[in-house]
Amino acid sequence: MALHRRQVLIKLLLVLLFVVACLNFFIAIDSGDGVPIVLPAGRSVLKKETSPLNTNTKSVADAITIEAGHLNGNLYLPSALRTNIDNLLRANIATDDGNPWCCLIASALNKPKRITCHGTCFLPRACTDQLYPFQSSTEQSFFHQLRNVTFDNRRGMGKFVVGSEALELQRKCRAMNARLHPPYQWCHQWLQSDIDDNLRNDNGIIDPYEANLPPAGCSLIPSTRSSYQNLLLFPSTGSSQRGDNKEGNNNLDGGTTTNNKLAFCGIAKNGITNWIQLLRFIIGAPDYLSVPYQKHDWKKFQFDSLDDQVQLNILNDESYTFAAFFRDPAERLLSLYLDKINGSDERWKNHFVSRYGLNGTPSFEEFVKMIDRERTSCPFNGRNSARLGGIDWCTDEHWAPQTFNCGLSEFLPRFKFIGSLNRIEHQAKQVLQHVGLWESYGRYYHEEKTFIPHSSCVVPPPELKVGDTLSGFQQQQHRMIEKKTSRTKDQGTMKFAHHSTQSQSKLDKYYTEELQEIVKRLYANDYKVWNLIKDEEDLVSGSELAMKLSSTCNEKAIR
């Protein structure tokens, strides 16, 4: 009898120990920051959800310090940082022009003469793998659903569109460009559909052409402008989907997978170069710090080149997270002037002087008054100052209104996140966390503090050593400075993100009261958005902004 009791007690004790162990296990799973854990069976368990908007982005523990395991392959490191230049030299990898450093990606259609500038550098795979820059044949097939637009340049007089589809697109683009300005309804999808119908119809809720916007694809047509020409589709999120757990990197350090995909609206003079460099970092280009605009690899992920139906599907696919960052319009315009028109790079200065028929470099006041002109039509051809004046669809993208981009003027609720360059360090991390790109790429991104000239078409990958701390994308960069400002609510300290021109500190020097009033009038709608977000610590949703910008949108949303 006593023996039986002892057996029962032992069994009860074992059951109790098992229950405690299970509780401890699930508590451990449920104590984190919303990142899925991959269990041995391959199943994913989501930790306790916390909004990325409440994350402390300045945590010291978030920074990556390089260990020996990162360099020998035992710890995870994105492939863009794993290049060993010494090994490349020993392998003597040859390219089409005999350059051992760079090659034109195999999927490029043309072969520019300067392969070093157009090609992907320090990456043998780009020379030999027909899939690059894609990770899989599925990804390649998706991004190869392209428009049927071809050009004829045989006469040496510039590109001419050929084919019925190209000519029809040209007709649509010019017709919409001729309208000069978007309607500025802010919430076109709400106004065209009933809330009870889930905002949808047979053709989807968002169609730029139906909203009187230049259709996507117009950037492919000479002398026309698209409202979506700088929309970037970041490739599959999650490091395991990019293949970065291969080649000795099986110890994946926090990589996540998610159904959220990033559609980022790049706006000229709002840090678009940094986001293109991040895109190249994610696809594995070791020369990601090079000036990217002549590179072919990232252009494979541009929204504007995709087929019409594919574009409509993406615009109405809720798994895509749309995001954009705004900048103080006065600062942005001055930055453009100091960087492109009156900067140290003679090529840019000569480009603008030639393109717009200028008689030398204008002063900032002259430049502002040149663009402060009313136009009754879009000058699609010619190189003269008539193309310089006016703020409309034919305006150069560097000083066109920010709200002209990516359907912001009509489909603002489509954007889950609208951020401010004043808070780029904090808010860029929020965006990447939401789509699962922070843990696997954002926090590993590294930008060395040495100055990189704008003309650098080949910048080698960082030479990492044990003890180095990775900077993280847009985190604590040398261009982030502390500045006292009277515009903050608490008269405290605000961080401003600066381009090399540091134009914020020069506003008082260049702007008279007259010029300030001109800019406020020319960019009135940009200021409407800017004034709503400039003091916000966290990202703001496009739906919230639309309701504040338009009483009609607000009423429709309430209904």
Number of strands: 12
Distance between the termini: 74 Å
Counting helices, strands and paired strands, the structural category is alpha+beta
Label the overall shape.
Answer: globular
Low-confidence stretches: 24-52, 54-60, 153-158, 195-204, 245-257, 477-501
* Main sheet specs: 4 strands, mixed
The portion of residues forming beta strands comes to: 5-15%
Q: Order of strands across the biggest sheet?
A: 7-8-9-10
Question: Helix amount, in percent?
Answer: 25-40%
> What is the overall pLDDT average?
76
List the total number of helices. 20
Rg on CA atoms, Å: 26 Å
What would your notes on this structure say?
- By secondary structure, the protein is an alpha+beta fold.
- Helix content is 32%, strand content 8%.
- The protein has helices at residues 2-29, 68-72, 85-91, 115-118, 124-128, 137-143, 164-177, 188-192, 239-242, 272-282, 308-315, 329-341, 346-355, 364-371, 424-434, 507-510, 513-522, 524-533, 542-549, 551-558, and strands at residues 37-38, 44-45, 102-103, 120-121, 150-152, 160-162, 231-233, 261-265, 320-326, 415-420, 480-484, 493-497.
- It has a 4-stranded mixed beta sheet. A two-stranded antiparallel sheet has the order 1-2.
- Helix 19 (542-549) crosses helix 20.
- The protein is globular and about 95 Å long.
